[in-house]
Design a protein that fits this description.
Shape: globular
Largest sheet: none
Strand content: under 5%
CATH class: Mainly Alpha
Structural class: mainly alpha
Length: 314
């Protein structure tokens, strides 16, 4: 167990350093967004581009991808029913809650975790592509349909296709990952200077992402004020950190994934809630506090849950 904690200690120490810097006001509220923008628009896309460019086709294991998709569908179904029937949330709020309980913080947590555990983030690529292009996009489409004016009742197919193109083209993490895959498949030769520059910038993504995540936690730690939202929050965190990875473990074993793919599947699904869920909640003005604090709480609790999953899988 100690060796496993030593493996992930760098990750959580970096998060704690960011948290500490935020608490002593070395950084002001909002400055974490500057770091997040650097990671999201520059460092991480370059990192993922290189990972996909050099990736081999074995990472696109059909059983690996199908195990993830089935696990996600089950978790989405459970969290939506719980939100609607038990916690009596609105339809819009329930959609946001299903995103909070299923979307992983790939950019700011999963990629650094995979680099520590597997020495590469390539195995995260197929599942992150599915999450962002399928599950996340579908969630946004449902929110858009739910909140749009009643006057719009036709041509939903073109709307869905347009939204899909918009998400891919406006998300550098997705677009550069796909570009890297295409360039790798076609064996397009990229000048060494460009590859070295991309690697230099891409290598900074993990440290900056984890540090900014700690900053965000420090800024929003005491923002949760409504006691009646505690149970929905704890339920979402429980589903995100324990139920979803347990489902993926069971599904992965049913598909007889080898140990490395099974470990990657569980660790990805056990990652903290994605930071973009509270951005979506703010955009649609629904369950903002739950979505925001779910990111903070799952990040803090992941120190224990990630190490427990690693110990169990080892």
């Amino acid at each position: 167990m100690l060796s496993i904690i030593n493996t992930t200690s760098t990750l959580f120490i970096t998060i704690f350093l960011g948290f500490l810097c935020g608490k002593v006001k070395l950084f002001k509220v909002g400055q974490d967004q500057t770091l997040i923008n650097y990671v999201f628009y520059i460092a991480l896309p370059l990192n993922l581009f290189l990972a996909c460019y050099h990736a081999t086709w074995h990472i696109f294991n059909p059983s690996y991808i199908l195990s993830y998709a089935i696990s996600m569908l089950i978790a989405l179904f459970i969290s939506y029913l719980l939100s609607i029937n038990v916690f009596k949330q609105s339809i819009g709020g329930s959609i946001v809650n299903t995103l909070s309980a299923s979307q992983v913080d790939g950019a700011y947590f999963t990629v650094p975790l995979f680099l520590l555990v597997f020495k590469t983030d390539s195995m995260a690529m197929p599942l992150m592509l599915i999450q962002n292009t399928v599950f996340f996009t579908f969630g946004i489409i449902l929110l858009q349909i739910h909140y749009e004016s009643k006057s719009r009742k036709s041509n939903y197919l073109s709307f869905i296709l347009g939204r899909l193109v918009h998400v891919i083209s406006h998300n550098p993490v997705i677009s550069l990952s796909l570009l890297g895959l295409v360039a790798g498949i076609l064996k397009i030769k990229i000048p060494a200077d460009i590859l070295h520059t991309a690697k230099f910038l891409g290598d900074s993504s993990s440290a900056v992402a984890l540090f900014s995540l700690g900053l965000t936690c420090s800024f929003y730690l005491y923002s949760f004020t409504k006691k009646e939202q505690i149970y929905p929050l704890l339920s979402l965190s429980f589903i995100k950190l324990l139920v979803l990875p347990l489902i993926s473990l069971i599904i992965g074993k049913l598909f007889k994934l080898d140990h490395q793919f099974l470990e990657a599947l569980v660790l990805l699904t056990a990652s903290p809630a994605a930071t973009h869920t509270y951005i979506i909640a703010q955009k649609y003005n629904t369950d903002v506090e739950i979505a925001t604090f779910n990111v903070v709480l799952t990040t803090l609790l992941s120190f224990f849950t990630i190490n427990l999953w690693l110990y169990w899988l080892s």
